[in-house]
User: What shape does this take?
Amino acid sequence: HVAGSKGKGSICAITASILKEAGFSVGLYTSPHIYNFLERIRVLDAGVNAKQDALFPDVLSERELCDVLEEVKPIIEEYCLTKDIDRLSVFEVFTVVALVYFRKRKVDIAVLETGLGGRLDATNAVESLVAVIAPISLEHTNILGDNVKAIAAEKAAIIKEGTKAVIVAMQEQDVLELIEKRSKEHSISPLAVGREIAIELVSQDLRRQIFNVIINEDKYLDIKMNLLGKHQAHNAAAAIGAVQSLKNFGFAISVEAIYKGIQKCFWPGRFEVFNEEPMIILDGAHNEASCSLLVDTITTLLPGKRVVLVLGFSRDKDKAAICRQLSKVASKVVFTKADHPRSSEIAEEDLKAFFPYQESFVTPNVEEALILAREKVEDDGIILIAGSLFVVSEARMIIGKEKEYV
Assistant: This one.
């Protein structure tokens, strides 16, 4: 069970990939999606040949979704009537669907990503063997609290009765102390990245990175991963901590499965590099912390490159914080709006205020933004698409790196 502000989807994907390589049937529940809502529910099974014409070839099918909905609809209706509530949220219904589907598929283990927070999240109805707390930062302050410690308390609530191990990604010290306190209340000594879980970066380029992870006496040397950015190495370290905990509980997971699972992990829209002319990078970074990591990765892997930023964001995001970070690498900015009800518009004068030293443009849709970005990018420059996974999704489909998946 994985909660956090950033990186939790990557941790889930890496963990599930390792478990698949170890021979387990793995239920994977993540959000949001890239192209299709059904991507949120997957069963990774090394022994099953899945269709190969989709972004993820192992997703829940429409027929399977209908079958499960028919089964759970009367149960949900009775629950709402008993509890005197109008309806469950879409996320709550889909969580029920995921769990019932995983039961039907007889998965060996499920990897669940929280939707929002942790304490009151639908996924927290499940008893979890291992809890992983991804990096925590300010987000959804109107719901989770107006400071990082308050948000951390909500997310740390996935540590509960039945939890046997806790893995903590890189955190601020006061957040780490809060998570440790919660863990000790349940008689658990957590493993923390940067403390019990050490990580050493060996090399990195635009194809892959190589790093070492050391957990107490166990050494995983020269791990190769296609996901880029040192934060992804940290996410992989947390995933290794999680699967090593499962090994301690009797799950047969070989060192080879750990190496192969990390190397084979595919998680689109996270510093995803398309080697076109010009180079295009897609990254769903959408808050100040994740945009800061994106800037760090850009400056490390592509120092001195002129960047045309294609930017969009959702209405509930801290636009000033996002722009403050991305302005550090952008030479020109093309703002756009995804075809999604949560997408935000911006006036030209407001965009100029966020990027006073860059040439900036406002376009009505992602397709026009890409056309303009290609016109404005300099020789040997790059196009960076960021700020919203909705914008990244549309751009990815337009670029045509995947067959139609609807």
Observations:
- The two ends are 29 Å apart (CA to CA).
- Residues 62-83 form the longest helix (22 residues).
- The chain has 13 helices and 16 strands.
- The chain has two domains: 2-264, 272-399.
